Amino acid sequence: MYDLLIKGGLIVDPANRPEPVVGDVWIRAGKVVDSPDSPDARPARTVDARGYVVMPGGIDVHCHIAGSKVNAARALRPEDHRANALKRGPGLRSGTSGSTPSTFATGYLYAGLGYTTALDASIPPLSARLAHHEFADTPLIDKAFLVLMGNNHFLMDRLRSGEEGKVRDAVAWLLDATKGFGVKVVNPGGIEQWKQGRGNVVSLDDDVASFGVTPRTILTGLARAIDALGLPHPMHLHGLNLGIPGNAATTLDTLRALDGHRVHLAHVQFHSYGDAEPKTSLFGSRVGEIADHVNSHEGVTVDVGQVMFGETTSMTADGAVGHFLARLTGRKWVNIDVEMETGCGVVPITYSDKNLVHALQWAIGLEWFLRVDDPWRVALSTDHPNGGSFLSYPRIIALLMDRGLRDDAFNALPEGVRRRSGLGDLSREYSLWEIAVITRAGPARMLGLPDKGHLGPGADGDVTIYAPDADKERMFELPRYVVKAGAVIVDGGEVRSSEVGRTLHVSPAHDPAIEAEIKDWFERDYTLQFANYPVASEDVANPLECGP
Amino acid sequence: MSSGPTPASSEPRTTPKRRSVADVTCLACGCLCDDLTVMLEGDRVVEVLSACEVGRSWFFSESGREPAIAASIEGKPVSTEEAIARAVSVLGEARSPVVFGLTRTVTESVREALGLADLLGARVVLDRSGTDLGRVSAYQGQGRVTATLGEVKNRADLVVFWGADPVRTHPRHWERYSVEPKGRFVPEGRAGRTVVVVDAEKTETAERADRFVQVPADRHLEALATLRMLARGKTPARPTAGFETLLGLADLMKRARYGAMFVQGGEDSGWRSGATWEAAARLVRVLNDFTRFVLLGLGAAGNLAGAEAALTWQSGYLQGVDFRLGHPSPLDDLVTIDELLKHREIDAVLVVGDGLPTGLSDQALAHLGSIPSIVIGSRATAVSDSPPTVALATWTPGFDARGTVVRTDGVAIRTRPVRDARLPGDGELIRKIVDGVKQAVKAS
What we know:
Structural class of chain B: alpha/beta
Shape of chain A: globular
Strand order of the largest sheet of chain B: 5-4-18-17-16-6-7-14-15
Number of helices of chain A: 18
Helix content of chain A: 25-40%
Strand content of chain B: 15-25%
Number of helices of chain B: 15
Largest sheet of chain B: 9 strands, mixed
Oligomer: heterodimer
Helix content of chain B: 25-40%
Distance between the termini of chain B: 62 Å
Low-confidence stretches of chain A: none
Mean pLDDT of chain B: 93
Radius of gyration of chain A: 22 Å
Largest sheet of chain A: 9 strands, mixed
Distance between the termini of chain A: 32 Å
Number of strands of chain B: 20
Number of strands of chain A: 24
Structural class of chain A: alpha/beta
């Protein structure tokens, strides 16, 4: 028996077909299968997709939807939820939206947008357990998280002494202990430096105080460990100097330092700024040079971190950035230093189209989409909620597909933006096929998830069905149907299910000898028992181990 | 090691097998130490290692408790099924129910209880102190610069206990987290830290501190505001009494490499007010323009932080939530169970916790006696002059329950039951009530 037949839609499946084609998608036991030979084959349900556009379910490669900083932000901002309530419905829980939706709302809203998988990009090992509990209350979508490692004391100590094997084993152990999916590096060494009250690191060869390492040592050492372990997703990097004028030079240095390794640059928009102009904090776009490097280096992928105008909440593991924004905006500020591991900063922020810096950030983000030649190497993200909510993805898609719309928006911005960004010269318009690449096929490939992001046999039965519309924002805002593992979860535009999806994780092998060494360090420095640190199987909802 | 008390009975018996459970988390105070070893003979606790006296006696008293009646209605024993059916009908008929408590149980059960509250369209009020409400409103007004306890252990060279007396209330805090432990950047331990106590009276903690600054309870807000001004290099127009002392303290704080301020605040102090908490948060924020400084609480016994975390991720609201409109609305900052009862705003109460609310005003108590009540908790069926309408006894979090709790600094710990539970989990009972309410809705 087949679960579902999606009949006669225009299938946009970039991983398998170079052009959209009209056809059927059959799903059995949650997976896409070949169309049956027998004319008697019957599905439990048929969705008539004639006239509709059929794509794999969307995949968010970089967002913040769980963990200590997201929950700190939810708690901090009741004013952000008040006007954004979601009523409970038959079988559905109630919730709140705004820049940091509650857990149930997060699942419903992503699914309602046609997304079926989301990766939280930044979880401290110490809050892995709570993040998994939040995931268990986040229905419909499959979830995974990256584990913060770029300021971990144990790893920095082993990197200093050049013990590569131990670094590799400790990375593997941490991923298994947290049931994480991959390695996140945020401002390598800089968070530790700031926690010590010694400012920040600003270049790859700065010393990280009292650790005897540099950002370069950390980056290259962890990149080697990740490659050696063969993790499905490469190093996921938030580099040095986020948001600082002149940081394009650091970003290029970083890419050169990692030459020969796979790397994913997160929210690259925030790392592409030219030098500060005299007497102002203004800067020009330097997307062109960095994009050229990306275009000529196959192992490099990026997500954009598009800024959208409006009210949102910034959140980062980079405590120094949180402090900077708190001083800049004077708004409320949460900072959490996390022992031995990382930091956390949360500050509300309003991006205004009247503000020249914000307008530049908007234009620089769009430049990124248009200057990376190969759409498989650039993923759609707002670094939710940092640049804006994931709910703004349809608007971004419209801006990419329609040059007229984009130019109108660009020309309405303050004059100074047009002197500093070449966005107006870029005539490229994304096709539906390319949109499918940057929102599902590409992210699946970046994450190393062979069963996701496509509709060939063996793929997860995660499908989104859109009604074509000249208004692309409207088209992508309200898919008609969303299918998860063969079940119709959004039916006629309405969320109809509250099933909890899978938790994707890796559990790479490691030499067990490393555990004794970690235990010694742990018992000396942490305030928690070593035995009580690893996430237990009861903590993880519907776990699914992914390669290697 | 103790061999345990002599058996009271002289009947011949074999000594039950001796065993121990390591890495046990203690919920007796807000420290949530997770390094206890509990020794048992059979089901009986015979020794508790690494615990303070508060924790040790808690484990012994749990172990010595008479087995509870599983369920009762109006104080009379009934089957669990009967009690659940009655709870379903009480909650199904209620037009304005409240779910109260939730701070003494595991986070998993809190999640279930919030699901029930959502289904019922109930209000959710956590069993929190007045100072906790002040903390919440200040957090939402100002945010907070804080850290996990290990950062204090490893980095803090200045520790300020402000309205906090951990030596008395959180006995192992001093040795385990804040003062004595040796840390990466404080290799000397106690000798590497300056300890300051600010309080209304000379407390036990003050006796052991390096410096004691006496500030009357009603002047804490003013002292914090003055310190902030001094930290920014400004001098108040009219220097108040004790000004010189505060000037010295501000200087000490700014010169710290990494300072940690712990606040607890008693019910009778100025810390019931959000304004005092906010002043502390503002002071610590300003200090971060000069050095590193963090603000923490000592934490409450049980799992207040876990209840707050789950409430926040499910509803968006740390302060408590009102589901009456079919979606979450924030509770007013000052809503307490006493207020709701006093003003007759609720017509049924479900307590997830030890028992019916205590410390109520006369009017609140009178209303409580006039509405149906359900208690789900380890002591729910204990003998009482005014038993709840329905009582369902459960396992005991921290003793024989399964599940997780959260430290006040946000670190979640999976608790380890020291013996098999004899009674069902509260989460399981709540799920059965949810099923019952759903069926009743379908049937109608």
